[in-house]
Amino acid sequence: GQNIDQPTEMTATEGAIVQINCTYQTSGFNGLFWYQQHAGEAPTFLSYNVLDGLEEKGRFSSFLSRSKGYSYLLLKELQMKDSASYLCASMDSNYQLIWGAGTKLIIKP
Amino acid sequence: DAMVIQNPRYQVTQFGKPVTLSCSQTLNHNVMYWYQQKSSQAPKLLFHYYDKDFNNEADTPDNFQSRRPNTSFCFLDIRSPGLGDAAMYLCATSKETSGSYEQYFGPGTRLTVT
Lengths: 109, 114
Known about the structure:
The structure holds two protein chains of two kinds. By secondary structure, chain A is mainly β. Helix content of chain A is 0%, strand content 57%. Chain A has no helices and eleven strands. In chain B, a hairpin with a 5-residue loop joins β7 (64-67) and β8 (73-78).
């Protein structure tokens, strides 16, 4: 079956660094997405990894290991506005996204 | 700005009363998706259109129907809403060219069933 696992909730302190992990099992693989979703709003695109390694984009970085079926999203210099859910999604062989339930990130002052 | 627009943002309907949600896009993307998302859950794909080709997910209830009259517009019809259909409905688009599979989401319609 197809499955995405990510922690339900994490807490971090403003200004710190947090890493959100995601493991995936999908029928085929065409890349791994991370989306940010604030409460009551639509998901917004953060990153797309299809090759192994680290992709850096400002305060956010995303890492992929295809052999391990593993990705993480790294958030640096955390700000209060980063409080949101972070959804991991794997694209399967039919180019459909298989979504995780999201990790709710709580930032404390 | 090019975007995905959903109307209405909030919809209240009565149990069993048909309701239609709309989505439009100015991105000229060939693929459009409808997702259902309940609180603290993953988005659940209901349908998608690849150009005019309609693709229904196997576990999408018959109560849900969709129409895409042209490239820009897509509708979700819920024929007889039940209490379990209360959710956020998200429309998304993508332009499936080589290497570009990002989905762009509209703001969503939150449906309440009374």
